[in-house]
Automatic annotation (TrEMBL):
Subcellular location: Cell membrane
CDD domains: TM_PBP2
Record's keyword terms, sorted: Amino-acid transport, Cell membrane, Membrane, Transmembrane, Transmembrane helix, Transport
The ABC transmembrane type-1 domain, residue ranges: 19-208
Transmembrane segments annotated in the record for this chain: 20-43, 55-77, 89-112, 190-211
Protein's recorded name: Polar amino acid transport system permease protein
NCBIfam families per record: HEQRo_perm_3TM
Membrane topology: Multi-pass membrane protein
Stored InterPro entries: AA_ABC_transptr_permease_3TM, ArtM/GltK/GlnP/TcyL/YhdX-like, MetI-like, MetI-like_sf
Similarity annotation: Belongs to the binding-protein-dependent transport system permease family. HisMQ subfamily.
Length: 219
C-alpha cells in the first residue's frame, strides 16, 4: 500500500467545513422527523381509523423503500411535480425528515403504550382534556423512556446523511470526494471522512449517555 496523507492534509480544513453542513441537515431533519413522528404516533393510537390507516401507510412506504430513492425522487422529481427545482440542501432535509418521521413515530408510539394506563385513567377521572393529558402527562413520561432509542435514530441519521453527496450537497463526503479527484487519490481523503464521521458518532453516543444518566437521576 502506498498511502500519502501529507498531500491530503492541506485540504483537511476544506473537508472539515462539511461538518457544519452535515450537522445542519441532521439537526433540521431530526427536528422535522421528531415533530412529524409525534403527530403520526398520535394518529396510530387514535380511535379514528382513517388517521391510523394514514399513519400506517406512511410508515410502510418510508420504511419499505430505500432512503436514497426517496432523496432522489424529491430532488430529481421536483421539477416535474412542482414545476421548479428544489435546492439540494432543502431536498436533503425533506427526505431525511420524512424518512425519520416513520421510524420515530414507531418509537414514540411504543413509548406511549408503555406508560402505565393508570396515568391516563387518573387524568380522565380528574377531567383533564385529551390534549393537555397527552402533552403534559403521557408524552413527557414516554419521551424519558424512549430517549436511548431516539438518540440511536439521530446517530443513524448522522451516518446516513452521507448519501446527500449523490445530489451535490457539499457535506463531508462530497468534499472528501472532490479532494480525492483533485489529488488523484481517493483512499486517504475518504479515510479522513470516515474518521470524522466516527468522531461525530462517538460524541453523540457519549452525549446521549450523559443525558440519559441525568434524566435517571431526576426520577
Amino acid at each position: 500500500m502506498n498511502l500519502d496523507f501529507t498531500s491530503i492534509l492541506p485540504s483537511l480544513p476544506y473537508i472539515l467545513r462539511g461538518i457544519g453542513v452535515t450537522l445542519q441537515i441532521v439537526a433540521l431533519a431530526g427536528l422535522l422527523g421528531f415533530l412529524l413522528g409525534i403527530i403520526l404516533s398520535l394518529f396510530k393510537i387514535s380511535s379514528i381509523k382513517v388517521l391510523g390507516w394514514f399513519a400506517d401507510i406512511y410508515t410502510s412506504i418510508f420504511r419499505g423503500t430505500p432512503l436514497v430513492l426517496q432523496l432522489m425522487i424529491i430532488y430529481f422529481g421536483s421539477p416535474q411535480i412542482l414545476g421548479y427545482q428544489i435546492e439540494p440542501y432543502v431536498a436533503a432535509v425533506l427526505a431525511f425528515g420524512l424518512n425519520s418521521a416513520a421510524y420515530i413515530s414507531e418509537i414514540i408510539r411504543a413509548g406511549i403504550l408503555a406508560v402505565d394506563k393508570g396515568q391516563s385513567e387518573a387524568a380522565m377521572a380528574l377531567g383533564v382534556p385529551y390534549r393537555p393529558m397527552m402533552l403534559n402527562i403521557i408524552l413527557p413520561q414516554a419521551l424519558k423512556n424512549i430517549l436511548p432509542a431516539l438518540m440511536n435514530e439521530f446517530i443513524t441519521l448522522t451516518k446516513e446523511s452521507a448519501i446527500v453527496t449523490t445530489i451535490g450537497v457539499m457535506d463531508i463526503m462530497r468534499r472528501a470526494y472532490q479532494v480525492g479527484a483533485d489529488k488523484y487519490s481517493f483512499f486517504e481523503p475518504l479515510l479522513l471522512a470516515g474518521l470524522i464521521y466516527y468522531i461525530m458518532v462517538m460524541t453523540l453516543t457519549i452525549l446521549g449517555k450523559v443525558i440519559e444518566r441525568r434524566m435517571r437521576r431526576g426520577d
